[in-house]
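During the first year of the project, the team set up a workflow for recording each protein of interest as an amino acid sequence followed immediately by a discrete structure-token representation. This format lets reviewers and collaborators read both layers of information side by side without switching files. As required by the reporting guidelines, we include two representative entries from the current panel. The first entry is reproduced here exactly as it appears in our internal archive.
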Amino acid sequence: MDRSTDGATSDAAGAATALSIGSATRIIEGAWAKYALAVTIFAASRIVILIAVSLSSALLPLNLHATDWNDGSGIFHYLLRWDSGWYLEIMRGGYRYLPDTLAKQNVAFFPLYPLVSWCVANAFGIAYSTAALVVANLCAAASVLLLYKYARDKYGTKIAFYAVAILSFFPASLFLSAGYAESLALMLTLAAFLELERGRHLKAAIWCGLLTAARPTGVVMLLPIAWCAWPRERWTRSSLARLMATLGIAGSGLAAYMVYLGFTFHAPLAFMTSQAGWTHGAHCSLLTGVYSFKYFAELFRMIPVPYALDPWIFASFAVVIFAARSRLSTPELLFAAASFAFLIATCLCSGRGFLTMSRELLTVFPAYLAGATLLANRPRSLFALHLCMAVGLFWYSTLFAQWYWVD
């Protein structure tokens, strides 16, 4: 081969390499642009919240009957209400527990969120209240990115964007940015599902272990992990050992918290028994939940408080997931079913009715996927849904900031 042919071959190889690098760069840039768009959708919903809390004092007087404490006067501190105070108490003074009392106690709140916030506060020298909001909002942004990636890989880009939008403007998504553990729990749930989708059961179990230390509802993640890790061929000692080890890791967060409560207060189930402080006087009956549906008319009396919507939101989540059941995967359906069963057992059967139901449903992400698939070819319905949810998000945030409502 002469030098001219050799040079031509070299030039062709160089051009092909440059072309492939250019194509890869464009793909990466396009992917990052789509991630940025997903975050932008979420940021737009956060602007609705900021406008609401900024105007809340002009729209509503402060509800002095419900105000137990206040932490700062800045605009962001309007997002530190209700349960945020319990998390701040844990950060500042740790857990306390008195047996045989009906008083509300902070052991009812799981440790991962206040622990992470405490670490951030001390690492960066910022106030605990600021750290709580930083952690919540960073986890919320991470949740949006994880939901987008999970939905895009399984259902396509359009469904992914629709799911992100439904999550972002869902009125109870206020709690993704408030001083609550919901954003951390949602992030860990989606991280576990991503690993399950890749067949990495051990990594999914690790994320689930952290999840069970963040929220009591995290235990429902054990069911899809068990389904995916279950031996599909024949049982052997090694397959059984892998399954048991996977489930042990998946429940390790809850187990660790129980061990801590046992050693510290001699009450490993204190997080359950302390719930009596919130449910004292309630009657254990499913009829409590059924009767809750009749209070819809109260939404329009005096200051409309959205607790009357909670039963209907619960029913809507169930109907949407059922309608899209053929489009969802088995682990997603198992997660949703286990979540509903857990909420029925712990909320409806405990006599609390649908109180806190919208917030509890926030982490049931298959509902966002189901809604996105059902409305993918109905742009007008999708727009109307988001418009209604944006109004609801604004009103929920206004009520929350002025101590009129918590879910």
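The second entry, processed by the same pipeline in the following quarter, appears below.
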Amino acid sequence: MTRTEFWQGNIACAEGALAAGCTFFGGYPITPSTEVAEHMAAKLPKRGGTFVQMEDEIGSIAAVIGASWTGARAMTSTSGPGFSLMMENIGFAAMTETPCVIVNIQRGGPSTGQPTMAAAGDMMQCRFGSHGDYSVIALCPASVQEMYELTVKAFNLSERFRVPVFLMADEIVGHMRERIDVPDSVERVDRVPLEKGTLPFSAGKTGVPGFPAFGKGYGVHVTGLTHDERGYPCATSPKLHEELVLRLVRKVEDARHEIADYEIVNPDAEQVFISYGAPARSVGQVLHDLGNENVGHLRLKTVWPFPEGILRKFPDAKEFLVPELNLGQIAREIERYVDQPVKQLPKLGGDLHTPAELKAALGGLK
């Protein structure tokens, strides 16, 4: 059963977190994500959870990591400058395999930039922002409905793979209001507990260790240093470091085709739009207006790990067109995997691509 609501995107994100069983939120207000924190502050304590406003974003992500290690399903939300402050601890979460969800309602940057205007300039930052080699998962909603659904999915992926998972929305989707169908319940995937007699960072065949929550009878050492399967630091062994980092990467990258979430329209098209986030809405309007089977659309809901195999589902494509609210961050990733021309359609300043602009980019097929 479902009920119909009319929600803002940020509220849908918070409600998705509550439905997914979030029990801890640590955050700090920042435009344009503040409504997520405000809603969690009002609702989470009434459901037996904990809301903490920290002194800054560094403290926020640190609190989320600590809460997760007690077994909590933990989350924070932020935007550009706060996201930058979180990067060191995001690397710590990746190294310590800490499940957590980080919501970034993106705005124009760099620096303070445009606090009230939309952008998607943090897409590479979420993938490579912290130092070292690691892998993460990033989801990109294009509607209020997906703000709810992909927040739920972010929690499940984080718990399953023991990684930080990012919901990379933008100001347009975060602040728009739309009808949404809210289910009575959602699927919930819990982290696998550590089996008795198993070392806390022994991954086994899945590549993902069982989780030894603090306060549950386990003695476990958690460190950002290179560590062995006991969790003890061992930072001078090249072999151990390579084995650890490769496992951290492969547990996500080897599952990229399973994690991939996308929609395809007109797979036999010669010109194909590839989009994520708010620009997907303009592309959808173009396809509706044209009704042209020569124009296709690949809409990515999962951007990281990048699902390169999906590009092969357009066998007749002669050109890929990539509208982005940045200067071509994901277009350059697409160029790595295709032989066809990739036309970058960047847009800065906060305005969304208009259907007329996208039609013009199609040239003779408009």
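For the second entry, the following points were noted during internal review. The longest strand covers residues 100-108. The mean pLDDT is 96. Both points are flagged for discussion at the upcoming steering committee meeting.
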